[in-house]
Amino acid sequence: MKFVDHLRARIAYGWNGHIDKSASPFISATPWLDPITQSQYAAVLNTPNPALTWEKTENLNFGIDFSLFGRRLEGLIEIYAKKSTNVLADFEVNPTYGFYYDEATLNKGNIKNDGVEIELASPILNGIWKWRTAFNYSHNKNVVENVTTNATNQSARTNLSQFNPVAGQPVDYLAVAEWAGYSDEGLPQVYYGDEILDITQIPINGGDLDLLQKFVGQRSPKHYGSWINDVSYRGFRLSARLLYSFGHKFLADSPPRNTLYNYQRFSNYFTWHPAIMVNRWQSPEDAETASMYSLSTRVANYSHTLMNDNIAEYNTNNVLDAGQVRLQSVSLTYQLPPNLIGFVRSASLQLQARNLGPIFLVNDQGVDPAFPKYSGSLYSAYFNVIRDRPEYSLSLRVNL
Amino acid sequence: MKHLIYTALIAAIMLFGGCSKDFLDTLPKGLVIAKSTNDFRLLLDNADTRYLNNLAQVSGYVDIVSDDSQLDSVWYDWERENLHARKLYAFESEIWTPDGPAGDDVWKQNYYISTLVSNILDQIHIADDNPSLQRQLIAEAKVHRAYAYLTLVNIYAKHYNPATASSDPGVPLIGNPAQLPSLERSSVQEIYDFILRELLASVDDLPDDVFTQFSHRPTKVSTYAILARTYLYMGDYEKALHYADLSLSIRDFLYAYDDIYNGAPLAENVIGISRTTDQEMLLFKTTTRNAGLNTYMKLDIPSFNALYDGYEIINDSVVANYDLRRLLWFDGFSATGQPRGDRVSYVFNNGFHRYSADGGGRLSYISVATPEMYLIRAECNARLNNLPEALNDINKLRRHRYRAGTYTDATVSQIGNQQAVLDEVLKERRRELYGKELRLFDVKRLALAVTHLEPGTANVGYQLPAGDPKLIWPVHYKYLEMNPEIGQTNR
């Protein structure tokens, strides 16, 4: 086979284990001084847990490295299947067990991880015009197995989902309630099984989360990678780097928290994106277009407020596809001819633009998944101002 | 001159150098890895009530269910963190709701102690450098755990009844928490058996008196006291008498309030003492962090005057208070000895008054102390028909609580029969153990009905018949959600 310069296939199987790094066979504690007895004492930090065992990961790996057509196409393909059993993770446990932080590191459940990685690189042109392109693609699918939880509070699978893995779902699943429009009072309604309930009717405790929330995907991409192109002509070099990721979901903006609560004063409201509050539900005609619930109907029960804040964020109406392609950076470099000036060995001038934002979004609302705006979050406001901006730089590099 | 400065400097460096070495020797840096008896000693000295998890905090809002609590209008401000207390006071069926506290501090603190002790007992076998100290530490740990379960079983279960105790659900008894065992409740009998077994196995390894120890460390005198309390709750009066006697034989100190009282009829003037110097204290225990007794241990004036009847109305504006507990324990009196408002609140054992030496803080002390032993001994003697002995203890206690020369000893002939003496003892018990988070247990034990006034008024607001299941605290819904096998009390 003449077109093959080099081809190597390999297959590997192995397993490794790891133990909880904080585990020790002794009780550890922090020393303190009792201000009243003026003597030392120690507050327990960690206690040994002899029940903890190794987290074991089996790894089956198949890979091919190749170089074809006189090194015109080089690359590698790797397929892997990983299975971790007795996964060590922090779980919320009953405070009755008396642990310090109501959570414990436990061996619980399995995680299956299957994936593919492909890297391709090619010098398409290699004369005075040079064009080099490199493409890589990764696919990962993970699923949690063999875990049971009996959580019934709506936050278990939303705000606290990292402590509540669900069998059959990815580690970073997204669970939301199915949106059913606004009630006549302008309160959010969702499906609870086949029933349509407003936020005051949903069972707060002892409810069935399977009736309230459905799994709509994962937060991390299933397919992702980059494409880098490098074109040069004499002293000029133009490079561009594209990043892409597909197959994941994110939550769009939601109203500031606590606004529904009877005892929250209007003067205490704040938002960074007023549109969401301006376009709120004001009459039944707004049912289709309202950006948030009514502010005239308020509830006196704080748990209903919590439920409302949760539903307003975690509902099918607010889930967007996070698929995207973004131009991460573009740069143009001019390399001055060597020894142009006596004492300068070489010099280059570079113009670079970074963080140029998405060039393609799957969601048609045009919300950038990397910087979703959150009305009521100070952190988000900061994040949006500081991070969501292209950066331009011009640099001169001189080598003496 | 220069020479002199250098000399002084060198001297100073040597001086401070020496100090800092000692300082480093006594203050370990970083982590304590529990291997020696010394390390385990440190673990069992954690009674620092500035923080949440320690061996001292065991109770809070328990007596709000009892007839010793008649709230004022502060009640209306209670939301979120003490919403459950409000619901307890109003005898509601549901106490733990999502708009209330996220957890039950009393349950959590006692189970924290249980787990801490289990962990220590699991590991302490490696600390064999000092066998007698090792035995003492094991004993201390077991006493703390027994005390936690005695508290739990009396709050979250029916009162001990010999006829039904082996089938009455108690509380979960957790042996090895690391394995996250199922949390079915053990029976009340099993919990009491466990408490007695642990206390009796420990007592011989402990030092006699608390005076040689810090007050947070269990000793023989406090273990006998807890045994006396346990047997009293079980209705075993001979044994309760025996252990109260043993406890008093080691320490029977009572403060004479006439010596403490400085003439000003205001609780603010009580002389500050500390848990390191209190001579009535047998074992240091406190309420949970945010449950200051002064916020809920309040009485309306008619109930207060009926309970503490050692006073005399001199004229429209002057009251002579002979029973000094009235003035020293309660806030709300005018300079002429009259209650100012419609409620008085119990402030004696909080960080702003008697224990001001220990700094502020919203929690109160509810230590095991000598007066309870006099009262247990008196009650057992009364029930066993040793009436003069019963009155001896009551008279002694009252002499220490009254202004000098204003108390005349009660005699059997003057009081009458056995029942009358017992009633007298129980009334004194209620007076003296006010604000110790023990009244609810007596309400259950003595099968009393409870009437609560509408907060801030003189109108009857809420009533509970004797033996009502609402005297039993329910378990927080979150704990039941995670482990439904705990099972809820029907209220």
Oligomeric composition of the shown chains: heterodimer
> What pattern of helices and strands is seen along the backbone of chain A?
EEEEEEEEEEEEEHEEEEHHEEEEHE
Rg on CA atoms of chain A, Å: 28 Å
Give the helix/strand class of chain A.
mainly beta
Shape descriptor of chain B reads: globular
Largest interface: A-B, 48 and 61 residues
Please state the CA-atom Rg of chain B, rounded to the nearest Å. 24 Å
Q: Strand share of the residues of chain A?
A: over 45%
Task: Please report the total strand number of chain B as a whole number.
Answer: 14
Report on the structure:
The complex is a heterodimer of chains A (400) and B (491). Chain A is mainly β. Chain A has one domain. Helix content of chain A is 8%, strand content 46%. In chain A, strands 1, 4, 5, 8, 9, 15, 16, 19, 20, 21 and 22 form an eleven-stranded antiparallel sheet that branches. Chain A is globular and about 80 Å long. By secondary structure, chain B is mostly helical. Chain B has a domain at 37-69 and 77-249 and 470-486: Serine Threonine Protein Phosphatase 5, Tetratricopeptide repeat, CATH 1.25.40. Chain B has 18 helices and 14 strands. In chain B, the strands form six sheets. A three-stranded antiparallel sheet of chain B has the order 7-11-10. Chain B has a two-stranded parallel ribbon with strand order 2-6. The chains are: A mainly beta (400), B mainly alpha (491). Chains A and B meet through strand 2, strand 3 and helix 3 of A and strand 1, helix 2, helix 4 and helix 18 of B.
Entry summary:
The complex is a heterodimer of chains A (400) and B (491). Chain A has 400 residues and is mostly beta strands. Chain A contains 4 helices and 22 strands.
Task: Considering the chains and any ligands shown, give keywords for the structure.
heterodimer, A: 400 residues, mainly beta, three-stranded antiparallel sheet, 8% helix, globular, B: 491 residues, mainly alpha, Serine Threonine Protein Phosphatase 5, Tetratricopeptide repeat, 14 strands, 43% helix, 9% strand, disordered N terminus
